[in-house]
Amino acid sequence: MEQAATKSVTINGAQLAYRLVGPANAPLIVTLHGGRGFGDHKSDFQAFLPLSSDYRLLSFDLRGHGRSSRTEPYSFRQLVEDIEGLRRYFVGGEKPCIICGGSFGGFFAQQYAITYPSHVSHLILRGTAPSHHHEAEAIQVLEARIHRAPGLSTGMLRDKIFGQFDSDLEFQLIMYAAAPLYSESFDADIALRRNIDTVFYAKSHNDLYAEPEKLFDYRDSLSTVTAKTLIIVGERDWICPPAQSRVIASLIPDSRLEIIQNANHSVHIEKNAEVIGHIRKHLIQPAELS
After folding, report:
1. Cα dihedral 252→275→50→96 (10° resolution)
2. What is the pTM of this model?
3. What pLDDT was estimated at residue 3?
4. Which domains are seen in the chain, by residue range?
């Protein structure tokens, strides 16, 4: 598979780091990474790279994340406008793109599809939730699985991961403690390397957990989504449990839900071939977009 170099583009005053691969005239897929304050585009780019044989794949770091600039403000509204700016830059006019958002990226993927319905032909949601109410369920799951992450407490999840970090170092240490919860095949050595290689920025995390971001709720608006929608979730997803995806599927007209067995929050990595197969078969048909 083609491995594009990382480039940057100025969108709404921020320098956004991105990689773009795939046929020049093919429909554009924009991936939106998870990890509020610590995510970047790399894992999504690798996971969805098989789609680049038929589609243009654009993966980027949100402002205040990864290698993108730390240009404020950090808000759901601003991130949605950055997606729209990227669509205009790479597609132009009123032509729609395909939005693929996971976890935190799934939050504003939904908001973008609600705000700009005609600009999204297809919506792919992975391991996400329609409202902040998923946090209470995640705390319950943690209480049942706390033995898997002995360095983490329910207080750290409630007050830090779902709240405010005091420093970048505290952020990094707590997310390493939480790492065993994210995959059904946890490898401590790999987790340590990834933690060291990750950019942790408490400021963007904290701003994106301040009101009204902390109290996001799309449940009353999802019926307005017109994009052809596929929702994928691992049956063992701990932080955005499958019940949250079922709610989304019940609210978006004609959407399709796939619950992947023996997979956790990183379902697109753990069960990559299965996820790519569902996307190709059930959601994206090149003939529809040509």
Report:
1. 0
2. 0.95
3. 63
4. 7-132+218-283 (3.40.50.1820), 135-207 (no CATH)
